[in-house]
Design a protein that fits this description.
This protein is mainly alpha-helical. Helices cover 62% and strands 5% of the residues.
């Protein structure tokens, strides 16, 4: 490719070190797609003849078909996917193939390919996120009245519904969807025509190519066009947050499916056993998702570190962007792909959740609210209830097992109705604030999520 400038060939070890064909071959479809659009533009402005254009289209279409079918293998001696396809095209159609690279550089070519690839793959992430959110939403709709303990500091805190807990993850996933979509909207401009960095002297039509490829416009600065990788960082950041949410959910599923909790039962198809302990049923899919989160964090950090000291415009360092973004998007897709059926087939153990909610004095706040509504300052009510909880602990009883006489020893304002007020069903049902765990609020949240997805 650059033989005219150099007096000797590079060493094989240097060629191997410089080569990216082993991983950027993933973008062969995008490279051919971009080349077809570029050829159409060159024809439209009179740079290519109709005959050369027809030969190029036929040649590229044949290469695509052969790569898809496996009839053509990638040449590991090629430097990258762009040079492999150009060399193969020239081999098939002769000089017409050599004319395709007119008014184009590998710098803007790879920038285009990567945007096309990430646009497609990130779109698949959005589709998977929507499917997962609907799977979680279905579980929530079936558990609007399933009461469980809500936690802070991993200590039982207040009674909530299982639906309310699941809907918190729906909200996270909705934000994840919009984050990816926002990044996609910003990245959807075409860098092709930026050439190496300064543009071209040929009368090209960049808008023609952008429209042909489904972009909203073109990069308005050619230096930025070839050096911008913000969209990689943005998408990797969004993917890292997706993995954060999946990892938190995984942690809870791991806890919930343990004998210590037994709040859910995972389907056998999404668990594993032990090679030595026959009783074991391990939540390995959730554990792997939790573990793979670190990979995606690492991909983001690798890209940021690669970019942080680069002068404008293109530098060979930027070849390092691809393995990180490829790994990031593929890991997220795999994790979402396994999470969806794992959630769909998960069985909530409602009786165990309710039994756990009966313990831990998680209705203590409602007991304090009972006194507050009768005119007792909240801090005073808090102290009274704290003393009652302490007495119950000493006696080994729950709040609803303490006698009315014992309650009245601490405040004459306690009446028989306190037992109704501190029942788990009442504690949940009377939560009326918007977004709360109350049954009406949960139904509103379900409708909100459905409205965003359906």
């Amino acid at each position: 490719m650059w033989a005219g400038r150099f007096s000797k060939a590079s060493e094989k070890i240097a060629d191997d070190f410089n080569s990216s064909i082993s991983f950027d071959q993933k973008m062969y479809r995008q490279d051919i797609q971009g080349s077809l659009a570029h050829a159409a533009m060159l024809l439209s402005v009179g740079i290519l003849t109709k005959a050369d254009y027809t030969a190029i289209v036929d040649g590229l279409s044949g290469i695509l078909s052969d790569l898809d079918s496996g009839a053509l293998s990638f040449d590991e001696n090629a430097e990258d996917i762009h040079m492999f396809i150009e060399a193969e095209l020239t081999k098939r159609v002769g000089d017409a193939g050599k004319r395709l690279h007119t008014a184009r550089s590998r710098n803007d070519q790879v920038a285009l390919d990567l945007r096309l690839y990430m646009r497609e793959e990130a779109g698949e992430v959005v589709a998977l996120l929507k499917k997962l959110t609907l799977a979680v939403l279905k579980q929530a709709k079936e558990n609007v009245h399933t009461i469980m303990p809500g936690y802070t500091h991993l200590q039982r805190a207040q009674p909530i519904t299982f639906a309310q807990h699941l809907l918190a993850y729906c909200m996270m996933f909705l934000r994840d969807i919009t984050r990816v979509q926002d990044a996609l909207a910003r990245m959807n401009v075409s860098p092709l025509g930026s050439c190496a960095l300064a543009g071209t002297t040929y009368p090209i039509d960049r808008d023609f190519v952008a429209e042909n490829l489904g972009f909203d416009g073109v990069c308005m600065n050619s230096v930025d066009g070839v050096s911008d990788r913000d969209y990689c960082v943005e998408l990797e950041s969004a993917f890292a947050l997706i993995m954060t949410h999946l990892s938190r959910f995984s942690e809870e599923i791991i806890l919930w499916s343990s004998w210590e909790f037994k709040f859910v039962e995972l389907d056998d198809a999404y668990t594993t056993g032990s090679s030595i302990m026959p009783q074991k049923k391990n939540s390995d899919m959730a554990e792997l998702v939790r573990g793979k989160t670190g990979r995606v964090y690492g991909d983001l950090l690798a890209t940021l570190t690669m970019l942080k000291g680069l002068p404008l415009a293109y530098n060979k360092d930027m070849q390092e962007d691809k393995e990180a973004v490829f790994d990031s998007v593929e890991t997220v897709q795999k994790c979402l792909g396994i999470f969806i059926p794992m959630i769909e087939t998960m069985t909530p153990l409602k009786e165990n959740m309710y039994a756990a909610a009966k313990k831990g004095f998680i209705n203590a706040t409602d007991l304090a609210d009972y006194l507050t509504k009768k005119g007792v300052p909240f801090r005073s009510a808090y102290k009274i209830v704290g003393e009652i909880v302490g007495a119950c602990i000493q006696k080994g009883i729950t709040l609803d097992e303490m006698s009315l006489e014992e309650y009245r020893e601490r405040s004459p304002l306690f009446e028989e109705d306190l037992y109704t007020e501190i029942s788990l069903e009442t504690c949940v049902g009377k939560r009326i604030s918007k977004g709360s765990t109350g049954y009406k609020s949960v139904e509103e949240q379900i409708a909100f999520v459905e409205g965003k997805l359906l």
